[in-house]
Design goal:
single chain, 327 residues, mainly beta, Beta-galactosidase, Chain A, domain 5, 9-stranded antiparallel β-sheet, 5-stranded antiparallel β-sheet, 40% strand
């Protein structure tokens, strides 16, 4: 029996900002923050009805797991055992498969935070779920702070070794409408992980001299769907990894995270088949800035430690989206 659509939890602050989170997929449905004139506007692509999320395949605002992004040829080996996954992005496995955690109904409860209103969502993924080993208990906490930042804290534990790479998949549009091609993007990193054509091979190449050099603000490229190696950090260290600015609204979003990678996806596969809050989700109508471990890390020895979780350990992944306005 398929789960129902679940509930919606609303977080607010004294400045009028608002975040709506659905238990279906631990999904961010709406995020309203002020523009330069103090007018509130929604800056993420979302749907009007929770049930509609089950009928789309764009991962709108969702929590993707057990492993976000792609696993080459939908298979991996771990501790001498081979595992075969669903090739839902043929021939590769993407975002946990067609019934990944973005389609699960999570359990929600309000939590106390000194920084602002918060909600915690939990999900238990059984051994063998989507072909992965081990029972995993996952938790996501959304906090809307007093100063218009959205904090997303993810954690997980397991009873058997398994790969974990949770990904938050909101599509941002700081203007609230139109495309994001006039947004200015800055990425705080000097390298990226090229693919053949899209799944990383294990190579790391400098962005200098390529179209992927966003070391200073540059307009978003329409075909972006690449993983960037953001500036190094010690495990658990938070640092700015990207900044997005919209000249029309005056809004700027700074992304702060503890993850080694940043998938930048400019919504090139959006095709107008979904809409919400009066906005049709056409090509390039939103951009994803997905903090993460490197895609396909489980199959690449130099990167594997980024994603392998073992009993007794706790996976942790924190990201803060901070909103400010200019003149």
């Amino acid at each position: 029996m398929s789960p129902g659509p679940g509930d919606i939890h609303t977080l607010t602050n004294a400045r009028g900002s608002l975040a709506r989170i659905a238990t279906f997929g631990a999904t961010l449905m709406e995020l309203r923050v002020p523009d330069r004139d103090g007018r509130l506007g929604n800056v993420v692509l979302g749907l009007d009805d929770v049930a509609a999320y089950a009928a789309q395949n764009f991962f709108l605002g969702a929590t993707c797991g057990r492993v976000g992004n792609r696993i080459r040829n939908a298979r991996f080996a771990l501790d001498g055992n081979s595992y075969h996954l669903e090739a839902n992005d043929p021939p590769h496995h993407l975002h946990g498969g067609s019934r990944g955690w973005y389609r699960a109904v999570w359990t929600a409860e309000p939590v106390t935070s000194a920084d602002g209103e918060a909600v915690a969502l939990t999900h238990v993924s059984p051994d063998g779920d989507a072909g992965y080993p081990g029972t995993v208990e996952a938790r996501v906490i959304y906090t809307l702070t007093k100063y218009d930042a959205l904090r997303v804290e993810m954690s997980a534990t397991t009873d058997r070794p398994t790969p974990i790479n949770l990904v938050h998949h909101s599509y941002f549009n700081l203007a609230g409408a139109g495309t994001i091609l006039d947004h200015a993007l800055t990425i705080f990193g000097d390298a990226y992980t090229p693919g053949d054509p899209i799944v990383p091979t294990g190579a790391i190449e400098p962005v200098a001299g390529t179209p992927f050099d966003f070391g200073s603000p540059k307009r978003v490229l329409p075909d972006l769907d690449h993983n960037f190696v953001v500036r190094p950090a010690t495990p658990g260290q938070m640092r700015a990894v990207a900044r997005l600015a919209d000249p029309r609204s005056g809004r700027t979003m700074t992304v702060v995270s503890d993850q080694p990678g940043l998938q930048v996806y400019a919504g090139k596969f959006l095709d107008g088949s979904t809409a919400g809050r009066g906005v049709v989700h056409a090509r390039n109508s939103g951009i994803c800035l997905e903090t993460q471990a490197f895609p396909n890390a489980i199959n690449l020895p130099d990167w594997r430690d980024q994603v392998v979780l073992r009993p007794g350990e706790t996976y942790r992944h924190s990201t803060i989206y901070t909103f400010t306005v200019g003149t």
